[in-house]
Amino acid sequence: MIDWPNVTASGHQELGLKPEDLQKSKCVLGFVPVVYYSVLLCVGVPVNILTAVALSRLASRTKKALYYYLLAVTGSDILSQLFIIFVGFLLETAVFHRDVPALLLHSVSAAEFAANHASIWSTVPLTVDRYVALCHPLLHRQISYPARARKIIAAVLTLSLVSGVPFFWWSDMWRNSHPPTALDTVLIWTHVTIIYFLPCGIFLVLNSLIIQRLRARQRQQRCCEECGPKSAPLGRLGKTTAMLLAITSVFSVLWAPRTAVVIYHLYVSSVHRDWRVHLAYDLSNMLAMLNTAVNFFLYCFVSKPFRGAVRDVVLLRGGPLYPRRNLPQQHAPTNASISSLYSGNNKRSQRDSAPLSPRGDRKPS
Predict the structure, then answer these.
(1) What gap in Å lies between CA 129 and CA 137, rounded to an integer?
(2) Of residues 178 and 142, which shows the higher confidence score?
(3) HSE-up of 98 (CA within 13 Å, CB side)?
(4) Which of 46, 55, 165, 230 is the most buried (most CB within 10 A)?
(5) Is 40 within 8 Å of 49 (Cβ atoms)?
(6) What are the b/e assignments for 47-63, b being 16+ CB within 10 Å?
């Protein structure tokens, strides 16, 4: 990052090498990464906290599993910013120059990987939920409800924590100039599979099925004039699908360079010996960490209810945290099917005006 040697004195002793025998790469970015990560942390953490508060209000008011999945993604992004950006990049690298006890260094490394895995894999249940909602709506009514969503989120976070334990033995790319060992190879391929290839494969398959389903519905609506009134729900589902595609696409684009650099480091050249790999690794890390701060803007762009919730939080307006008593949603079962994130106020008022059961509480006009 800054013009510091990548191998500490302890690293020299471990490798049995003298300082003059090491070809040390230098970071050509100078203080740019430190400034970048500081700005990203100062912007990303408050923005994600604001997102979490707004999503909590929406989840409490609507009882939709969708908001619980988005809340899990936001919480995991906050953990990634604290462990990876603040502790890993700023404290260890910029402040202590990685001159910290080895046990602490490896422990923080395991925590960073656990937070990283949680941030990425929290998006997978959201993608699965959207796929079931579009392609199997009857099944979605039965299996998608807040209690089950919370159990799924707890399972994902637990598995993410467990998956970070093996990376306690992760080799520090900034310190090791020797060829990767067999353990390094296993850990690197496990890392890129968990954080990129496997989730991106799931995103690609499910998103392709979702897009095909939406196109089929659009063709059916064009061919049948009496299906015109049903175009509004499809529009809302299309908005939610657009948001989901944006989240997964941004992740795939921002994390691709880091994945390529890590594999290049494994088989071609180390960060320690080649300044170009050093530069590529710095830039790829900066792009990857940008993914932890962009979801707020995607939500604001797509979701009118989310913008309203954010406005209420910023203006310190209480807003209804729970469903109103006169809303028919209160009498709906807990496992009711979730609608899209783009359920506007006009459409909600239309649903309120229609009775949901033969025992409707409303008097005939």
Answers:
(1) 10
(2) 142
(3) 19
(4) 55
(5) no
(6) bbebbbbbbbbbbebbb
